[in-house]
Write a structure and sequence with these properties.
Elements: E1 10-12, E2 18-20, H1 49-56, H2 61-106, H3 108-125
Amino acid sequence: MSNLPEPVRVVQLPDGTYTYADHLPAIQAPTTAPQVVHQHIHQAPPDRTVQRIALGSGVGAGAVAAGVYFGPLLVGALTAIAANLALLTLLAAVMAWGVVTVVKSVGGPDGKAAAKTLARTRKRRR
């Protein structure tokens, strides 16, 4: 009786390469047919009321197409502008608060009077 391991088989794969049989993945035969997953992605059609009214009133198709193209573009641009203005407003408020705080803490009695004037000015702007 020998203590040698069992010899390993070498097999040729369909692509022509050789490999050891013990490295092959175990392939199980499918027991049932594969399931088909139906995924429905629903998207609402665009509202074409404005285009229909425009075409009915005699506006050309080019003008309607321009409205369809530039309408959402305009909304996006205005939204970006509004977001920038909101950020600038927040930045201005934080900077004004910082100036008031520094002037109050550093300036002594003159600083407190100046801070009070700044605070009154800010209240009037609201």
